[in-house]
Amino acid sequence: MPSLLEVLNRAGEDDLLRCCGSARWARELRAQRPFRSLGEVEEVSAAVLATLDWPEVVPLLEQVARVRQRWPDLGRGELIYEQRFGHPFVLRAESMSRAAVLAQLRHRSGNDRATERATAIAELAGVVAVRLRGLVL
């Protein structure tokens, strides 16, 4: 059975698009192969995501599960955030408690637009990293 690194080094564009819906991200990630470590894959992925224009990022944020799907009682706060910033609240929350997610939602709701966009992209990179680690061809 191939290692995850071997899988990522030979993954096709369609495989990568399951992890992140940006064709540009998938092409640029493939162009920088072969990777020597999973950490390198995640670093390159995050760097490419950071180069995307905001209109390219918003649809990717839409592809991330909403916090309210896991904690319905946080839905109101999430909707207020979305109204304030105009995009979904994205958080790599798979191992976070409800209280930790709520604290992040409250903290990030106080950010200015530029800070929050950068934070959302960084969180998206974390979500994509989890998806990459789950890639099976």
TrEMBL record:
EC number in record: 4.1.1.97
Catalytic activity: 5-hydroxy-2-oxo-4-ureido-2,5-dihydro-1H-imidazole-5-carboxylate + H(+) = (S)-allantoin + CO2
Tagged with keyword rRNA-binding: no
InterPro entries, A to Z: OHCU_decarboxylase (IPR018020), OHCU_decarboxylase_sf (IPR036778)
Protein keywords: Decarboxylase, Lyase, Purine metabolism
Oxo-4-hydroxy-4-carboxy-5-ureidoimidazoline decarboxylase domain mapped to chain residues: 80-133
Pathway where this protein functions: Purine metabolism; urate degradation; (S)-allantoin from urate: step 3/3
Protein name: 2-oxo-4-hydroxy-4-carboxy-5-ureidoimidazoline decarboxylase
Species assigned in the record: Actinokineospora diospyrosa
